[in-house]
Design goal:
Mean pLDDT: 91
Helix content: 25-40%
Low-confidence stretches: 205-210
Structural class: alpha+beta
Oligomer: single chain
Number of strands: 31
Radius of gyration: 28 Å
Shape: globular
Distance between the termini: 30 Å
Largest sheet: 8 strands, mixed
Strand content: 15-25%
Number of helices: 19
């Protein structure tokens, strides 16, 4: 069974592709689906239907290829709840719509033009700029923002907020002079307070079906009405950074976000908007405070947070949790672009950024490729000139009555809409059959969790269905509805088909998300212990062995890679937070929680390719023994791409051999990993950092930290082999210990 080909059709990766008829089978790894709703966004074969879908009157499921039609009575039988529903005369056995074709299990509906907003109503962008940034960095940021204004479509709304110890909201009605409304940086603001301060009138009562219009004010305007004034306002921004000895620059980050969100709320921009925060340091006052302004107070570490010694962390997280709820209610996305050599408070900001689906970029400078390329990618436009952004999305799941929905992990929020299909056992964002996503891309991936409904008597061999209904608004503000209907079969509890349907790559991605969920409230050692215990029970159940005989232990091919995935996960930066800051950990975990199976696996177990004179590049083991003096390694951990030169290659480079026409092969050898690295960087957002290093250099640590320590300071090793100074277990020792424990029964 080719799970990758199935994913290309359905946009789904199932941890188990055959489900047991009762929950008593104890599969150890949960029944789950990694769903990428817009995976086929570029697929030309995806049918686009210019009408509204036919819905079941009882369960709300959409007409699909598994429905049974009675053409004489003009009735279709819902395969989910068996409800009889009428269908229009246009459907006949000689005139089937695309959604009934067996090959079209995924279709997209583009309803009539009534789903579009009135002309001139588009997405809104509030730029929140930290003016405590140094003048040089601020100049680089201003250049990028001015360039960005030219890429906005004519229907976009814009607003500008700047902040230091105070928050300044710019009035964009005045082009010849600047007018600011100033807010105190130590206060939190609701939408009603913002409305009163700005004197924005309340909207009139709307009738059903009417689209709210933006109230008359001068702070959030169409780009066509204020391009000159916002350009002048950005050009006039200057750094207020006047650092006193022994103190940090004043920043009221939380208050600035609160003002920006309040503006969007009272202007009723709830069909698609972004708050884009650009900062270069932590909040030092007001709500969302990260660290005190005095430098004698060091910024919090993981140790401080776990031991309750981070004075402001809990209170700031509570504030941002409230912000996250308001963002979800208003369909607003929060992006964090942090460019600093120090921490900026990303750990506290993770909740609203992740739940709203926003970008988080941690870079060294506003001049870095990571920042510039990501910002420009975000504002790409399609052939018609609209932004390639999607807003205000929901995902609804409908299942047959033998399946129950437990919850979801990813950039989504539970809408707490319960029905008979929703399980009481919640996982992550649970207690619902509908989830809210403020934005959605073709890479956004949600992990959904299910359980068998033991109240139903299920027959082995019968089919069950799960339907994903994704509603979202495109950059042109038109509504789309994508429907994917997937079918699988029930299998007897002890059938060998259960093992045959196991997708070890999807299972590793799911377990990584569950481990991150535990890591939020547990120590790393407890999470590792849980992973180990789960792995031991799993291999004990599905391995072939003679009890108490470790040498007889075997795993079939579709289970064999799973233990090494867990080996790399337990020593990854997602679990082991030693040598990472809370901000870095927040960023890594946020990215893992939204990537699909392929991206997740690269994060868990990076790829390693070897380039040598012997032939084309070949994949090699992620092992210290793969380093050799006369080869080049290309290492991809998703966040970093490392080009590692062996000691001989590095020496030849210093001597300039690649410039000698007699060493053409050496020049080509040096070019090959560079070209492949550029291709990796070009296709990925956020852009990974490229590190070029020589063997034994300090930068080689990016590679060495991820390699299997099969040769350490305690090993006997051959001459020329590199070593890793560590007390960590090697993969072989880990697997040997696993076999011993698995066969003990």
């Amino acid at each position: 069974m080719d799970f990758v080909e199935l994913e290309a059709v359905e946009g789904l990766r199932w941890s188990w592709n055959s489900w047991p008829v009762t929950s008593k089978s104890e599969l150890i790894i949960p029944l789950s689906i990694m769903c990428t709703p817009l995976m086929q966004a570029q697929a030309t074969e995806l049918p686009l239907l210019p009408y509204d879908p036919l819905l079941c009157t009882r369960c709300g499921a959409v007409l699909n290829p598994y429905a049974r039609l009675d053409y004489q009575s003009r009735i279709w039988h819902c395969p989910f709840c068996s409800q009889r529903n009428p269908f229009p005369r246009s459907i006949a056995d000689t005139n089937l719509p695309a959604e009934l074709f067996p090959t079209y299990t995924t279709v997209e509906y583009s309803p009539s033009s009534s789903s579009f907003l009135p002309p001139g109503i588009g997405p809104a962008f509030v730029f929140v700029v930290d003016i405590s940034t140094s003048e040089d960095e601020l100049r680089l940021l201003k250049n990028e923002l001015l360039l960005l204004l030219h890429h906005l479509p004519d229907n976009a709304f814009v607003a500008l907020v700047t902040f230091d110890s105070m928050v300044y909201l710019h009035d964009l009605r005045y082009s010849h002079c600047s007018r600011l409304v100033t807010f105190h940086g130590e206060r939190q603001f609701s939408s009603n307070q913002i409305r009163q301060f700005l004197n924005i009138s309340r909207p009139h009562q709307l009738h059903l079906g009417q689209t709210p219009l933006v109230p008359k004010q001068g702070f959030l305007l169409p780009i066509t009405d204020c391009e000159f004034s916002i350009t002048a306002a950005i050009e006039d921004i200057h750094s207020t950074c006047n650092i006193k000895s022994g103190s940090r620059p004043p920043r009221s980050t939380g208050a600035a976000i609160s003002v920006a969100l309040g503006l969007l709320e009272c202007c009723l921009i709830n069909t698609g908007s972004r708050i884009m925060l650009f900062t270069s340091g932590p909040a030092t006052l007001g709500p969302g405070l990260v660290v005190d302004s005095a430098l004698r107070h060091s910024i919090r570490t993981h140790h401080d947070i776990f031991n309750g010694q981070a004075r402001h962390h809990a209170k700031s997280c509570s504030f941002y949790k409230q912000i996250s709820k308001r963002l979800s209610d208003a369909s607003v996305i929060l992006d964090l672009f942090a460019c600093s050599l120090d921490q900026v408070g990303a750990a506290e900001l993770r909740e609203p950024v992740e739940r709203s689906g926003g970008f988080m970029i941690l870079a060294d400078s506003f001049e870095s490729d990571q920042f510039r390329k990501c910002l420009r990618h975000l504002f790409k436009r399609d052939d018609e000139g609209y932004l390639k952004m999607n807003f205000d999305a929901t995902i609804e799941i409908v299942t047959t009555k033998d399946v129950k929905i437990c919850g979801a992990l990813g950039p989504c929020v539970s809408l707490r809409k319960k029905n008979s299909l929703v399980s009481d056992a919640e996982v992550g964002q649970g207690g619902t059959c509908i989830w809210k996503l403020n934005t959605l891309t073709d890479r956004t991936c949600i992990a959904f969790f299910f359980q068998v409904n033991d109240e139903q008597k299920i027959q082995p061999g019968s089919a069950f269905l799960i339907q994903f209904i994704t509603r979202y608004r495109q950059g042109d503000m038109g509504l789309r509805k994508r429907v994917t209907t997937a079918a699988r079969r029930w299998i007897a509890n002890h059938s060998t088909d259960i093992a045959a349907g196991f997708d070890q790559e999807a299972a590793a991605s799911v377990m990584a998300r569950l481990a991150i969920l535990r890591a939020e409230t547990c120590y790393a050692r407890d999470v590792i212990r849980w992973l180990d215990d789960t792995l031991i029970r799993f291999t004990s159940k599905f391995g072939d062995y003679v009890p108490e005989d470790p040498s007889s232990f075997r795993l079939s091919s579709n289970f064999s890679l799973y233990p090494q995935f867990m080996f790399h996960l337990r020593r990854s930066q997602f679990i082991d937070v030693c040598n990472t800051t809370p901000d870095e950990t927040a960023y890594f975990r946020l990215m893992l929680n939204r990537e699909g199976v392929v991206g997740s696996l690269i994060m868990i177990q990076p790829t390693l390719f070897q380039y040598s004179f012997d032939g084309p590049p070949v994949p090699v083991l992620l092992d210290i023994r793969s380093i050799s003096p006369d080869s080049i390694l290309l290492f991809d951990s998703f966040f970093h791409v490392v080009i590692h030169y062996g000691s001989k290659i590095a020496q030849w480079k210093k001597l300039g051999y690649e410039r000698d026409p007699n060493h053409e092969n050496f020049r080509k050898l040096l070019e090959a990993p560079e070209l492949d690295a550029e291709q990796l960087v070009a296709e990925r957002v956020p852009v990974p950092k490229i590190v070029r290093c020589d063997q034994y250099s300090s930068q080689a640590r990016f590679l060495l930290a991820k390699l299997n320590p099969s040769v350490t300071q305690n090993s006997t090793y051959t001459d020329g082999s590199d070593i890793i100074f560590t007390d960590d277990l090697s993969l072989q020792v880990f697997l040997d210990q696993l076999q011993v424990l698995a066969v003990q029964g």
